[in-house]
Design goal:
Order of helices and strands of chain A: HHHHHHHHEEE
Radius of gyration of chain A: 20 Å
Strand content of chain B: 15-25%
Oligomer: heterodimer
Helix content of chain B: 10-25%
Strand order of the largest sheet of chain B: 4-13-14-15-11-18
Number of strands of chain A: 3
Distance between the termini of chain A: 17 Å
Structural class of chain A: mainly alpha
Strand order of the largest sheet of chain A: 1-3
Radius of gyration of chain B: 23 Å
Order of helices and strands of chain B: EHEHEHHHEHEEEEEHEEEEEHEEEHEEEH
Chain lengths: ~180, ~575
């Protein structure tokens, strides 16, 4: 889906001066050749990748809108670990992940992804309340929230994305959307 | 004109350079405009415009390691945001220097259009009070011009640029030629109503901004679409920039030659005729040097760059700049102090049903209220500050995790309002920009060395802004009121000014009342370097007005055969 569609622009009552405007706005955005869209090198073992995916999906599950996995949050977290975090931050995250996984083994003798959703929530609740692995839970929660609400699904399906608002209304009834406008 | 390559050379293509090129071209001069940065064409080169967060590298935030390596100063202006990183100078490739560990944050652009593409767009006029300030309290050198002389030029540039704002009739913030203001939201109107009643004399107004609320079809520009992506470039041309406004006008005359990637190292000067005879550039890509010649030169490279170029323009056989017969070149470097903020929460449940639709490009402004009629009895500082802010409500935070958290995050938090004060910095002669005697950059230009600090007056002013701000928020009935007064680092506000100050007396100033160098009649310095004081309001409209006025004067002088 292109961000700017001529039909959308016209429907929004946009004041367009000159047809040439649409072309730059409708610039194809796929297939980016710049860094920052996927991890430059793998940070997770396959097991860790499954664990992070399962944890992120419990933090933001699929409800009436898609959850963290559909929104690509696990790959976002791996990219951040690879290309954004300091080595210390990366180690802290991976250590914390190991502690939570260890708790799943102690409690259920299963790996975290193999647990039922209820069991996973129980482990995460313990991680949250007992600060397992340092502050792993909050860390992972913040990363999941950031990755989810900056994803296309998060912006467009969970929140309401209006690329060209066309005007400003500082007295807009929340009841008309019952969602948050993404920016 | 066989001796000249062009009638005029304009150095720099930002807000001032763009205006100089437009005015000179429209008056029939053949103009060469030079910029040290790369070419950016309107629309075509706004490579991140319209992208959602998921389409931005690193979802919008440059990795800290890269930020700290390449944008150690530019990050303070937003270079750390991947939507706009490409519009900033690389501080590793183009470094600066400090003296005595006194940091200065010189946030520089890296393209044709300069900071006009990434500016904050606040469009305010100076007042009588501002132009008289140096004379009244004795700091710096007195301005040789007053508000009445500049007012018609403000009108001229405002009309072309397209400024949205309300007319308020305030002597300290004169009204201009405005399109309708951008609307305020329910919380801002709530605060305005209560504050203006509770504290007579205080005003909360829609920030006057160079984002249009009406189309300018004659310029091919549309009104603002409330995307708030201005700093990525705007294909609607809704905000004033070189690319959207002055460059098309200059090109339309067929009198403009624009060259990007040309780093001006120095001006050549003939002491016998007391004229600038050439502009020396180094091509940023090939390192080839070349000298261009013109009858007149407009130096609009930005306040600090223009000062640096002038300092590096030596008299033959001397290490002294030709433009420094006053000894004032490089002195009186200033910036606004702006790390004092205050905030509060609107407690009225009547506002709860409302949110904001659209992303407005401006906010609200509290005009200066301190020391307006002489010195306030309870003020332990001279001059004053204005306050820029906005009210908004973000997504509600939520504890825990899972479906309940996700659902809770579909709601909004409370309406909060936050302001930041912009304080006038006094002109101090020993706040200087000089040249490093031994270190040069990759183009052979001596590194700029900053020795600039804020002083007692600025610190007291910022403390007062926090106290007054909190008192105002409480008087208006807000809850959760707080303030913070962080470290004020010069350069931070990106309102750097001074270095080639204007004045009547050639013994104590660098340019005269026409922005014309005392030491070279064919040189005009019309950007922020000419400023003899800073006012507390954002400076760009004044740079525009002074540039247009200087261009008018210069062409008249050329036609009269005087220069």
């Amino acid at each position: 889906m292109t961000v700017f569609d001529r039909r959308d622009l016209l429907a929004a009552g946009i004041a367009l001066l000159g047809a040439e405007l649409v072309t730059p706005l409708a610039r194809a955005l796929a297939a980016e050749a710049v860094p920052g869209f996927s991890a430059s090198q793998a940070q997770f073992t396959p097991e860790q990748r499954a664990q992070v995916a399962a944890i992120s999906e419990r933090i933001i599950p699929t409800t009436d809108t898609p959850g963290a996995i559909s929104a690509g949050v696990p790959a976002f977290i791996e990219m951040m670990l690879a290309d954004w975090y300091s080595p210390q931050e990366r180690d802290d995250f991976l250590n914390g992940l190991g502690v939570v996984e260890g708790r799943a083994w102690i409690q259920y003798e299963k790996t975290f992804p193999a647990l039922t959703p209820q069991e996973q929530d129980e482990i995460l609740t313990i991680a949250m309340q007992e600060h397992l692995g340092g502050d792993f839970f909050n860390h992972c929660k913040q990363m999941t929230i950031l990755g989810y609400y900056t994803s296309e699904i998060g912006c467009k399906q969970e929140r309401v994305y209006v690329p060209v608002p066309g005007h400003y209304d500082g007295r807009y009834p929340y009841a008309q959307v019952r969602r948050v406008f993404s920016s | 004109m066989a001796n000249y390559d062009f009638d005029a050379i304009v150095i720099g293509s930002g807000i001032s350079g763009g205006w100089a090129a437009k005015e000179l071209c429209e008056k029939g001069m053949k103009v060469l405009m030079l910029d040290r940065g790369r070419m950016v064409e309107h629309r075509k080169d706004y490579i991140t415009e319209g992208k959602g967060p998921w389409q931005l590298a690193y979802r919008g935030n440059l990795p800290p390691a890269e930020t700290d390596r390449d944008f150690i100063m530019a990050k303070w202006g937003g270079a750390n945001l991947t939507a706009q990183t490409h519009f900033y100078n690389n501080d590793r490739l183009n470094p600066i220097d400090y003296e005595n560990s006194k940091p200065f944050r010189w946030v520089r652009p890296n393209q044709v259009g300069g900071k006009s593409l990434i500016w904050g767009r606040v469009a305010l006029r100076w007042s009588h009070i501002d132009f008289e300030a140096n004379k009244r309290d004795g700091h710096g050198s007195p301005w040789p011009i007053d508000y009445d002389e500049i007012a018609p030029w403000y009108s001229y540039v405002e009309t072309f640029a397209g400024i949205a704002g309300s007319r308020e009739g305030l002597p300290q913030l004169p009204d201009g030629e405005y399109q309708p203001p951008h609307p305020m939201n329910v919380a801002e109107l709530w605060v305005k109503d209560r504050l203006e009643k509770a504290v007579p004399g205080r005003k909360v107004i829609s920030t006057r901004t160079a984002n249009m609320t009406e189309d300018k079809p004659e310029q091919g520009r549309s009104r603002c679409q409330d995307r708030n992506m201005c700093a990525r470039g705007c294909s609607f041309g809704a905000y004033f920039s070189t690319q959207s406004a002055t460059l098309p006008a200059a090109r339309k005359t067929n009198n403009l030659t624009l060259m990007s990637d040309q780093v001006v190292t120095n001006l050549e000067y003939d002491p016998k005729t007391r004229r600038v005879t050439g502009v020396r550039v180094v091509d940023a890509n090939t390192n080839q040097a070349h000298v261009y010649r013109s009858r007149i030169v407009f130096l609009c490279a930005s306040a600090m760059s223009s000062t640096q170029i002038l300092l590096n323009s030596r008299l033959p056989g001397s290490d002294r700049s030709f433009a420094d017969s006053s000894g004032m070149l490089g002195h009186y470097i200033m910036d606004h102090a702006f790390r004092a903020s205050f905030w509060g929460t609107v407690p009225d449940p009547a506002l709860e049903p409302f949110i904001a639709y659209g992303r407005r490009p401006n906010g609200v402004y509290i005009p200066r209220f301190r020391n307006l009629n002489g010195q306030d009895a309870d003020a332990d500082f001279v001059r004053g500050y204005g306050m820029q802010g906005a009210a908004g409500r973000g997504p509600a935070g939520a504890g825990g995790f899972g479906a309940a958290m996700k659902e809770a995050m579909r709601a909004y938090g409370p309406w909060t309002i936050r302001f930041t004060a912009f304080g006038e910095c006094l002109p101090y002669k020993d706040n200087t920009l000089s040249l490093n005697p031994s270190k040069t950059d990759r183009f052979g230009v001596p590194l700029a060395v900053f020795n600039v600090t804020f002083r007692d007056n600025e610190q007291k002013m910022m403390r007062d802004a926090c106290l007054q701000g909190e008192a105002m928020m409480k008087a208006a009935g807000l809850t959760g009121v707080g303030s913070i007064n962080e470290e004020h680092v010069p350069g931070d506000a990106i309102h750097e000014m001074g270095g080639a100050c204007m004045g009547e007396d050639p013994r104590s100033s660098v340019v005269n009342r026409w922005s014309q160098a005392h030491d070279a009649a064919n040189l005009f310095v019309t950007d922020g370097s000419q400023m003899a004081s800073t006012s507390c309001v954002n400076p760009s409209m004044t740079f525009m007005a002074l540039t247009a006025r200087a261009a008018d004067y210069a062409v008249k002088q050329v036609k009269a055969g005087a220069i």
